[in-house]
Design goal:
Blueprint lengths: L3 H4 L6 H47 L4 E3 H6 L10 E4 L5 H10 L4 E2 L6 E6 L2 E6 L9 H6 L1 E5 L2 E5 L2 H10 L9 H10 L5 H7 L4 H12 L8
Parallel strand pairs: 2-5
Antiparallel strand pairs: 1-2, 3-4, 4-5, 6-7
Helix pairs in contact: 2-4, 6-8
C-alpha cells in the first residue's frame, strides 16, 4: 500500500484556524470600540443637555441642584446611562416647566405629581420636586456643594441625599440593587453611611441593601 505522504499531501488546518481567530478578534475589537464610542457620545450628550437645562433654569431664576447619577459622577462615581436629574422646590415647578416650554422644548407633567419632565435634544431631564424622602426644601438646596461639572459651576446634591433617595426608591415593583451597589463601591469613603442608614431605617429594602453592603465588606456593620 502506498503511503499518502507524498502522493496526497496533507494540509494542516492550523493556518485557517489562526486566520479565523484573528478575524474574530479584529471584529470583536471593532465592535467594542464602536460600543465605547457610542457610549461616550451618549454620555457627552447627557452632559450637554445638563448644561443647557441648567442655563434655562438660571435664566428663569429657579433655584436647583444637580441630583441623581450625575451628582455621583461629579464626585468620581460611574457614568450614568439614564437621564439628567435636577432637584427643585415644589413652588418652582410651574415656573421651571414654563422656562423649558418657552425655549421650544417638549415638557410633560406626569400624573404621579412629584416631577416635571422635559426633553433637551432627546435627553430626558427630570425636574424633581418631591423625591422619596420628601419635598425639596431650602435646607436641601443650602447643603448642596458648589462644584464645577463639565466646565459649569453648579450646586450638586450631597451624596447622602442622593443615596437616600435612590435607596428609598427601591420597591417590590423595582427591586434592583445594582446601581446603588455600584455607587457604594465607588463612593464609599465619601459617604456618611450612618446618616443614610438612619434616614432609610423604615424601608425593608434599605435593610436588605445594608445587609448586602456589610456581607460584601463595602460598609462595616454598625458598632
Amino acid at each position: 500500500m502506498r503511503s499518502r505522504v507524498g502522493s496526497e499531501a496533507w494540509t494542516s488546518p492550523a493556518p485557517a484556524i489562526l486566520t479565523t481567530v484573528s478575524m474574530f478578534h479584529v471584529r470583536c475589537g471593532r465592535e467594542t470600540a464602536q460600543a465605547m464610542t457610542s457610549g461616550e457620545t451618549e454620555f457627552r450628550g447627557l452632559l450637554e443637555a445638563m448644561k443647557r437645562a441648567g442655563g434655562l433654569l438660571n435664566e428663569a431664576g429657579v433655584p436647583w441642584v444637580l441630583g441623581g447619577g450625575l451628582a455621583c459622577w461629579a464626585r468620581g462615581g460611574p457614568e450614568t446611562e439614564h437621564d439628567v436629574d435636577f432637584l427643585i422646590k415644589p413652588e418652582d415647578a410651574d415656573r421651571a416647566q414654563q422656562a423649558f416650554a418657552q425655549a421650544g422644548l417638549k415638557t410633560e407633567r406626569p400624573p404621579e405629581g412629584w416631577l416635571v419632565k422635559a426633553w433637551v435634544d432627546d435627553v430626558l431631564v427630570d425636574l424633581i420636586f418631591e423625591p422619596q424622602d420628601g419635598p425639596v426644601d431650602d435646607d436641601l438646596l443650602a447643603r448642596a456643594e458648589e462644584l464645577e461639572v463639565y466646565a459649569m459651576r453648579m450646586k450638586v446634591a450631597r451624596l447622602e441625599d442622593v443615596l437616600t433617595q435612590k435607596v428609598l426608591a427601591i420597591s417590590e415593583q423595582q427591586p434592583d440593587f445594582s446601581s446603588v451597589l455600584e455607587l457604594a463601591r465607588s463612593l464609599r469613603e465619601q459617604v456618611d453611611w450612618e446618616e443614610v442608614r438612619e434616614r432609610t431605617r423604615d424601608s425593608p429594602f434599605a435593610k436588605a441593601y445594608f445587609t448586602l453592603l456589610e456581607e460584601l465588606e463595602i460598609v462595616p456593620a454598625p458598632s
